[in-house]
Amino acid sequence: MATPVLESAELVFVAADGAARCTLSIYLQGNWRPQADGLAPLLDVPAAQALADGEGQVQLLEGVRYEYALDNAAYRLALAQHYTDTQGIVMQSKAKGRAHCGVLNPGLATGRLPLVLLDQTGAIQSSAFVEVRSRKLSYKADYQHMMQDITAYSVDLLQELRAPSLFKAEPDPGHDAVTLGQRFAFVRALLQNPAFENALHRITTHPHQVWQHEAHERSIARGFKPTGKVLRQLAQGSRRVAVPVSHPLHATLETLPEFVTVNRATPTHDTPENRFVKFALRSFHQFLDTLRARVPDPTKDARLVQEITALCTRLDEALASGVMRQVSEPTFLPLGSPTLQRREGYREVLQAWLQFAMAAKLVWHGGEQVFGAGQRDVATLYEYWVFFKLLDVVAKVFTLSKPSHEALLEPTSDGFGLKLRAGKFVALQGVSTQPGRVLNVQFSYNRSFVATQRPRQAGSWSENLRPDYTLSLWPVEFTADQAELQELMVHVHFDAKYRIDQVAALLREGEHDQEALSQAGEDALSEIKREENRGSYKRADLLKMHAYRDAIRRTQGAYVVYPGVPGDDKRLNAFHEVLPGLGAFALRPGAGTQAIETFMRDVVNHVSDRASAREQHSFHTWQTYESAPPPTAQEQRASYLVLPEKGPTGDSRAKPLRETFVVVGWVKGDAHLQWVESTGKYNFRMGSAVGGLRLSVQVVGATYLLLHGANGVAVPGLFRIEKPEIGPAVHSAAELTAMGYPSAPTQLSYLVYDVVRATEFDSTEWNMAALANKPSNAAQGHPFALSLLDLMLVSRNTGS
After folding, report:
1. Are 473 and 615 in contact (CB under 8 A)?
2. What is the reported pTM?
3. All residues at 6 or more sequence positions from 678 whose CB lies less than 8 Å from its CB, including other chains
4. Which residue ranges does the record assign to the DUF2357 domain (predicted)?
């Protein structure tokens, strides 16, 4: 059965004397419609449950708008000034006489929403609060789990910074009012850890006990265990009584003592281990009491006070258990006890106590966005939590040691601060040796890529962009700037998105070809257009990954990390290799990081492969854009019409003009030119003699042959070199003569190309005198090579 929708709820503002000052009524707007997630938009939870959860009784839902009305028109409703975001949440009605009414629009501001009651002069008369719930059903458990993980990681870093043997374990909540809530968040994460709560339950149900021996007198008429001490009492004890003559012992002992003293073993829970548990619980309680006493404004920090009280209540319940009531005060701390170190329950309390002092000294200056002013921003906390999870994966995949504590912790006046903060750049670096390459690795949080028109620098070529996390890889032989300059840098970006559920599903929507774009597909695209017009475009996160991929220079991948169902990951590759690519990874509190780890291993294997297609592409990108040649004039571009669009095979595109080479040779006269045309052969001298052909890359891979004579005039048109991939053949002087060479050969051997007229250039003439970068010995007939682009710039078409 569906949960009935509560259409209104009331919140009472109480005066200083405890009397009701005014009642706030909150209503669902009349145009509200049920959402697909089925969550109740308005709740009024019991007071006991609200206190236990540290929440307000009246609970709203993020993303839903409400109407409100005060029952006294003399008052106005406003948002407390200390709340971090005051824009557009409480909107008073502008209608005459309706200033006591209006709209509540919490938007995405989850957590405690502090409200104040103002009189006509604007003075605050009372305060109250409502709770804004996240649409994520698991957000409470997620919040607690992520906070525990961050606390555990931070404490580990602090232990590296100051070894436990040197750490002064005096937990102090500090005197800075700004950091009270942040310190409490770390301590609460320890004490509300299910492992700690289960440990207390285990101790109270299966406590450690020892058998205590005590002496007492027992009548000789009752049975007892004979010991040497008892036997001596039988022989020597006082207050003796006669043994009846008929008793078998009469022959041995005529009298026996009336009472003997024996030892009785009784179990007791008053052990050093249980005394330590009691001491630890009282230490926690004392810290919380001190923290609560130092809250400067209990009204402003009502949530902090309420949560401290709730945690103290849990500790009081544990201290009031039957086991703890039997335990006396400790006289020493049995830290070396095997029971404390190994027994289930006790070892968890010992670990919590050891970590407690360090957690109490941690300050998280970035945490005000997570829990400041009563907020419970689980979305921002998810961003921080993903940083630590990705950091673990990076350290594991690249066999890096954990980053030094200095990278994430900094000393403060009364403790140590966690540097992680929204908008603040943090970079962790290392070197990783992989098969095929030694790589520099940098894992960055909040790295900004500034818009720049200098393509060789790091940055974006369009707008300033700042992904949440960036993994950068480049060979150790180059600096980061050099790697950017030469297209050797590889950036892979990740963005944390707590509030989205179906990024992978959005990626799957693109899995169709042109024929599959049926009417249903057209309708889906039309709906996307309508969403854009309504401002609710669901593919915005996917397009942001495209923006990272396309705008940030040297970026090869961009991926969303979201709390989806484990295994619901999606990777799209632009080609057949792992990079470049886009995708989404499901990562939620309590679930593993196996998919991301597998992906990163694929990435490092790919970047270490110097024979990959991406490596070849990046090299040609660097080579192609290494210099910026002047643009070709329009009249010069007209000469390109004679060039074929297809290559020699006729089914693929031709090479670019810059990568199509022409070898320039000497023609002795008309007889020599006729021999070339009739035989389809052209010969170059070999060796280091004057005029010998040097086999450069351009010469060996040349596609065309240009001939020129002694007067410096080029022969019109070009010859195409047949099968340029196999290069020229070697012929002897005798073979050349046998082929009818028009003059006597002067060399022993020659390099001979097979050529044929390139008919597309029959109407093209070449101005050799205007040829740029022509070698000085070209007029003497020395061969050289140039690009087809350079040659086309000195061409003239003589055809009609």
Report:
1. no
2. 0.73
3. none
4. 102-353
| Residue pair 552/459 in contact by the 8 Å Cβ criterion | yes
**262 is written with which tokens?**
């024996």
What is the number of other CB atoms lying within 10 angstroms of the CB of residue 688? 7
Residue 111 has a CB neighbour count (10 Å cut-off) of 26
Q: Tell me the C-alpha distance between 585 and 567, whole Å.
A: 8
Using one digit for the tens of pLDDT, what is the confidence trace for 42-55? 999 998 888 777 78
The label of the residue with tokens 């170059």 reads 684
- Asked if 43 contacts 6 with a C-beta cutoff of 8 angstroms, the reply is yes
Cβ atoms of residues 722 and 755 within 8 Å: yes
In angstroms, the CA 442 to CA 390 distance is 12
Residue 551 has pLDDT above 80, yes or no: yes
Task: Read off the tokens for 692.
Answer: 């010998």
| CA distances for 240 relative to 219, 225, 254, 257, angstroms | 11, 20, 10, 4
Of 89, 183, 69, which is closest to residue 132 (Cα–Cα)? 89
Contact status, residue 750 vs residue 683, Cβ threshold 8 Å: yes
CA 544 to the chain's CA centroid: 15
Q: Cα–Cα distance between 454 and 465 in angstroms, integer?
A: 16
Amino acid at residue number 529: K
Tell me, what's the pLDDT at 175?
53
Beta carbons within 10 angstroms of residue 258's beta carbon? 14
Distance CA 156, CA 159 (A): 5
744 alpha carbon, distance to own chain's centre: 75
Which domains, from first to last, does the chain contain? 8-135 (2.60.40), 140-207+271-387 (no CATH), 425-508+539-622 (no CATH), 649-797 (3.10.590)
Structure tokens at 209: 């006990």
Burial of 310 (0-12, 13-18, 19+ CB in 10 A): middle
For 156-178, b/e burial (b = at least 16 CB within 10 A) is: ebbeebeeeeeeeeebebbeeee
- Amino acid (one-letter) located at 595: A
Sheet holding 66-70, edge to edge: 8-14, 20-28, 66-70, 101-104, 90-92
| pLDDT score, position 444 | 92
| CA–CA gap between residue 379 and residue 387 (Å, rounded) | 13
Structure token digits, residue 749: 């051997």
In tens, the pLDDT along 573-619 reads: 989 999 999 999 999 887 778 999 999 999 999 999 999 999 999 99
3-state secondary structure of 398: coil
Element (H, E) at 700: helix 697-700
* DSSP codes of every residue in 359-375: HHTEEETTTHHHHGGGB
Rounded Cα distance, 755 and 717, in Å: 13
Cβ–Cβ contacts within 10 Å for residue 46, how many? 9
Burial profile 472-500: b = 16 or more Cβ within 10 angstroms, e = fewer: bbbbeeeeeeebbbbbbbbbbbbbbbbbb
Contact call for residues 404 and 578 (beta carbons, < 8 A): no
Helix axes 177-191 and 272-293, enclosed angle (nearest 10): 150
pLDDT digits (tens, 9 = 90+) for 771-782: 887 888 887 788
Measured distance CA(800)–CA(798) in Å, rounded: 7
Cis ω for the linkage preceding 580 (within 30 of 0): yes
- How far is residue 43's CA from residue 11's CA, in Å, rounded to a whole number? 12
Q: Are 310 and 316 in contact (CB under 8 A)?
A: no
Which of 50, 352, 328, 312 has the alpha carbon at shortest distance from 195? 352
